[in-house]
Amino acid sequence: MTIRSFHPQVRTLMGPGPADVHPRILEALSRPTIGHLDPQFVAMMEELKELLRYAFRTQNPLTMPVSAPGSAGMETCFANLVEPGDKVIVCINGVFGGRMKENVARTGGTAVVVSDPWGRAVDPQKLEDTLKAHPDARLVAFVHAETSTGARSDAKTLIEIAHAHDCLTIVDTVTSLGGCPVEVDAWEADAVYAGTQKCLSCTPGLAPISFHERALEKVRNRKTKIQSWFLDLNLVMSYWGSNQQRSYHHTAPINALYGLHEALLLLQEEGIEQAWARHERNHLALRAGLEVMGLSFIVPESERLPQMNTVSIPEGIEDAAVRSRLLHQYNLEIGAGLGELAGKVWRIGLMGYSSRPENVLFCISALGSVLNDLGAKVDLNEALAQAHAALGQA
Ligand SMILES: *Cc1c(COP(=O)(O)O)cnc(C)c1O
Q1: Is pTM, for the whole model, over 0.85?
Q2: How much distance in Å is there from the Cα of 20 to the middle of ligand 1?
Q3: Would you call the peptide bond into 306 cis, given omega within 30 degrees of 0 as the criterion?
């Protein structure tokens, strides 16, 4: 067998991430690699931190990308903020909350779970009740945008409740950053992490994080050493910190950081409020078409994420057959259900550069056509008419 250069077929990515990568970002990735301590590179890192503060809506000096995917952002928060024996309240309403609980266990903490149904937001009253029952808890963790279900939780309220009980907060904003309001300073969030391949339209592999001084104080005053050398913020800051004496910790993923710089520049050029509004407009148009096709959302309207549209699979339609036809006939990827929703739902992402009117119309056409091929009776003309009408009103 002769192995040749790898040239993948281009797809339209409308799943739970990665999303379509903007061509300007792909071009940025191919620029010349320079040293990670080169003064040019160090100047770019400062711009990158500034652009990340814009995206997170924060002034936190410790705002930087961890050199690994979103999951490493999650681990950075737990590894630095949980000490053996700490009691941590973890809100679980989908897959990613479950991973937070696993992180607590692996960092030696004790997790107390606040459980909500998949497809619903975290219930603030349940958090309040749990904190009252566990006055020794010092940390609350929750997922702002649960990608496994498409539900958005009320981050501001959950953080307020946590602070009223003397707890710091860890907030997962992997799917929300860039797609709907994330207000790190206005929420008074203590530690947040995100990813690059969802609403930032970038390639996977980096995890932007932001830590408030309150959280850093806890990191500095730990009684025990952080078990992870790679994720120990005290060490990482020798490279990413603001002092002029940057020293080697690990080799930064240089070209990947060019990509993130370009992605954040695109966000700033569009304007973050405009990006949020675009995600909302395209979601409403997709929804108009999907509802005509009889596909219903599993999340109540007031708790829905515009970037993650989770709909029930119609009776008698086989999940894998539909997704396979979409991929092979239309080069269109949509997401399957995860965990307890496997086989029951599709997750249609409208994230970042994927959130465009032409993708909305393409997805409705392709999905409607495949459903009709498989025997569902879908009024494709009416679905497209409703989507067009929604886009026209915007
Ligand atoms: C995608 C995702 C993650 C994990 O990010 P990776 O880049 O896949 O490691 C964590 N939390 C949420 C809510 C996500 O959607």
Answers
A1: yes
A2: 16
A3: no
For ligand 1, whether the C-beta of 69 sits within 6 Å is yes
pLDDT at 244: 66
CA 88 to chain centre: 22
Is there a contact between 74 and 103 (Cβ–Cβ < 8 Å)?
Answer: yes
CA distance linking residue 348 with residue 333, whole number of Å: 9
* Domains of the chain, start order: 23-268 (3.40.640.10), 272-393 (3.90.1150.10)
Two structure tokens written together for 5: 């250069």
Q: Is 204 in the pocket of ligand 1 (CB under 6 A)?
A: yes
Q: Is there an atom of ligand 1 within 6 Å of 337 CB? A: no
Whose tokens are 């203590």? That residue is: 190
| Among 134, 65, 139, CA closest to 101 | 139
**Of all protein residues, whose CA lies closest to atom 3 belonging to ligand 1?**
70
Ligand 1 atom 8: the closest Cα is on which residue? Answer: 70
Mean pLDDT of the chain: 97
Q: How many CB atoms lie within 10 A of CB 369?
A: 16
71 CA → ligand 1 middle, Å: 6
What's the one-letter identity of residue 363?
C
Q: Give nearest CA residue, ligand 1 atom 12.
A: 174
Q: Is the dihedral of CA 200, 217, 227, 111 positive or negative?
A: negative
Spatial strand order in the sheet of 345-349:
12-14, 332-336, 345-349, 308-312
- In the reported structure, the alpha carbon of residue 319 is separated from the centroid of ligand 1 by a whole-number distance in angstroms of 23
First to last CA, the chain: 53
| AA identity, residue 72 | A
Average pLDDT over residues 215-226: 96
Question: Which ligand 1 atom lies nearest to the CA of residue 74?
Answer: 10
Q: What is the DSSP string of 264-286?
A: HHHHHHH-HHHHHHHHHHHHHHH
Cα 179 to Cα 171: distance, rounded to the nearest angstrom: 16
- pLDDT score at 394: 64
